[in-house]
Amino acid sequence: MMAAGGEVAVPLLGTKRRHDGCPGCRLDEANKTSTGIPYLNFFYIWIVCLTSTLPIQSLFPYLYFMIRDLKIAKQEQDIGFYAGFVGATYFLARTFSSVPWGIFADKYGRKPCIVISILSVVVFNTLFGLSTSYWMAIVTRGLLGLLCGILGPIKAYATEVCRKEHQALGISLVTSSRAIALVIGPAIGGFLAQPADKYPNLFSKESIFGRFPYFLPSFVISILAAGSCIACIWLPETLHLHDDEKVEAIDALEAQVAVSNLEGGKAKEDGDTDTSTKNLLRNWQLMSAVILYCIFCLHDTAYLETFSLWAVSSRKFRGLSLTSQDVGTVLAVSGVGVLVYQLAVYPFLVKYFGAIRPLRPAAVLSILLLITYPFLANLQETELKILINIASLLKNVFSATITTACNILQNTAVTQEQRGVANGISVTLMSLFKGVAPAAAGILFSWAQKHMTGLFLPGDQILFLMINMVSVIGLLLTFKPFFNMSSALRRS
Q1: Band of pLDDT at residue 273, cut at 50, 70 and 90
Q2: How far is CA 178 from CA 13, 61, 230, 410, in A?
């Protein structure tokens, strides 16, 4: 039986019993004898996380053109409205499935959950690329979000598959794979969408990639997902599956005593041992941190949806008239920049200022940067491409700093044995906010294009102002009485 955070519980009486046929027990024994880093298992985790994230990141460079070609929008200004719901469907579906997938993983194992999730990417991401109607795109995207329940279980798996001293590395692999997806995903979407138009010498109009211009990026991602699904064969199961319920009850008691011993032998207060969702919802330090995280996630997702639509929209609507390939390049450059920042710059920032203190300055700088975005439409050619890459890079660096701080705030607000449930609550609420964001951004984008004149500000400026207001609200909520930053700094 595993204690909180994937640590092997110390039994009440000597050595912990090993149950024959239990995959969790076999893995515990293997980790006891092998003190090295499980590089192969970590590599499989990294690949699985990467391929499950690519369908999200690859969509944005070509979404505007896909909605246009599906002919659901009656006029050009309505494209953003319909695009928003395609972007939102995945996250809204994940909102409803996050908790059930967590329960499934706790009952039947992490590995079945991971395999089913990757298979759903292979099937429904492929079908999405073959969409011949708007509603087919909506349904396939929704089913992908509903059945890809990997986000919560993979974090638990990353800490359980290794020894305690390697757990931080396991979690960092999950984070880094998502950062790499920010680079690879937009590049795949931007460069491989509409291949018959971009590479007529390689793809004819009569081929499947010519008849389905958005199939190639989906197909490539599905091939990568199929490869990672094959890699799952060698993933060990980490969940302890004991048939004897009495033995499980004893093991659970042993785990509680072990945690007490690890904390210096002090008996926990009654309120501290209750890890129920109800009690966590009463933990204001946790819930305020979760709300902050959700608000900034809402802002980031709305920004990404708006940026992708605005960058490719016509100059007559104060857009940038970029191609899907241009947008893919901008997002990929931003992803590379964020990765370099996280590996080379961010550690020094944390060393001198801590991980939480930069949250407010990053939010302020992000707000100031976004104010300049509407004026980029006045630029042309090389000057525009250089400045839009710089602006996008800085915006994503600020977002990464804020998101990391919010994640740390959540995890320091609860004890170790409560973090699994706390992160489950966070993922559910975050998915809900991320689901609302693209739909709201798409509606607002469509409205802005229809109201370019006649108001106190041009429509594009109102668009970015409204998105900026979400970040302003998040910044204001980092102060008392809503949130106690001083207390959070002391805990961290």
Answers
A1: very low
A2: 42, 17, 20, 19
